[in-house]
Design goal:
- The chain is mostly beta strands.
- The chain has one domain: Porin (Beta Barrel), CATH 2.40.160.40.
- 8% of the residues lie in helices and 53% in strands.
- The chain is built from 2 helices and 17 strands.
- The chain has a 14-stranded antiparallel beta barrel with strand order 1-2-3-4-5-6-7-10-12-13-14-15-16-17.
- A hairpin with a 2-residue loop joins strand 15 and strand 16.
Length: 314
């Protein structure tokens, strides 16, 4: 038992070390429901559903793992004035060990109709990030270690991003984006030891909907994440939807794990989703019981004459 407790403390300390030194790894939160949370990574998605769409997402990653990430996200977006212009808002709060990362971003998208069946959208994202890291809260073997004596200062870091999103026949989409173009350096009170860098992240997303029968749709999707100094990460998902009400699917994430998704349209405009995934790496698999994610999305329609063009696809 004592050995297990010491191991838990060691893992938490490792998390603190990641924060206390220059960071080069993936820093943005990961989502299994990325196909329903596109606005978080690509501002060009704003207004694409022709409704005021509100999405809530909660992810509890690596349950029972000390200091594991807990992420909450709220996004809302809608066309404004015309279907060619969309606006949105993205709020994210990510907690990992002693660190808390909060971001607030506004999104703007301009849509160009290429043909009767295809559209190309350009998007801009701008907002602020706030990072807090209370390193003295960590349990460490040497409480006088100077690397952990000082917290990171609360600091507002402005940033902006860019994205492009292409759709064809409301059945296929592909997008590229970078939500944060600026790389900020942050320091703790002990500037000689505690420091880190918020790296830029680059995303490629694609997916679609294939009609298999009168009652069945197949929805494959993929998300590629790239960060300087970190391995490229690929998420692949395959979802089957039945009777436009229920969906089931599986996912695979390179270097991390596999999982399953299930979704239910409680009624036409309200989608409830749940996913469970577990890690395949030796370090995290031994000390956690998997990751849970809950997603809720609702489309507000303000006119009885207005109809969502693609409520079942993406």
């Amino acid at each position: 038992m004592k050995k297990y407790i010491n191991m838990k403390r060691f893992i938490v300390t490792i998390i603190g070390l990641i924060v206390a030194t220059t960071i080069y790894a993936q820093q943005d939160p990961m989502y299994t429901h990325y196909m329903y949370n596109t606005l978080s990574v690509n501002p060009a998605y704003a207004g694409s559903r022709d409704a005021l769409t509100v999405t809530l997402l909660h992810r509890n990653q690596w349950v029972t793992f000390p200091g594991a990430p807990i992420t909450n996200t709220l996004t809302l977006h809608s066309p404004i004035f015309t279907e060619s212009v969309g606006v949105g808002l993205s709020l994210t709060h990510d907690k990992i060990g002693p660190t808390k990362f909060t971001s607030i971003y506004g999104d703007f998208a301009f849509r160009i109709k290429l043909t009767k069946k295809s559209k190309l959208t350009f998007g801009l994202k701008a907002g602020i990030d706030l990072l807090t890291a209370n390193l003295p809260d960590l349990e460490i073997h040497d409480p006088d270690d100077p690397a952990f004596l000082y917290p990171f200062k609360n600091k507002v870091l402005p940033n902006f991003g860019f994205g492009m999103f292409y759709t064809f026949k409301d059945r296929f989409y592909v997008g590229i984006s970078t939500p944060r173009l600026l790389e900020h350096k942050f320091v703790g009170e002990n500037t000689l030891i505690s420091s880190g860098i918020l790296r830029g992240h680059y995303y490629f997303i694609t997916g679609g909907s294939i009609k298999l029968s009168r009652f069945t749709e197949f929805k494959p999707s993929a998300l590629v994440k790239m960060t300087p100094g970190a391995p490229i990460e690929l998420d692949v998902s395959a979802i089957f939807e039945f009777y436009k009400r229920v969906n089931f699917g599986v996912m695979y994430r390179t270097g991390d794990g596999v999982g399953a998704l299930v979704g239910l349209y409680i009624f036409d405009r309200l989608l409830l989703g749940y996913s469970y995934d577990f890690s395949l790496t030796n370090t995290t698999m031994k000390y956690n019981t998997g990751s849970h994610e809950i997603m809720l999305r609702y489309d507000f329609i303000f006119s009885s004459q207005h109809r969502i063009k693609s409520p079942r696809y993406f």
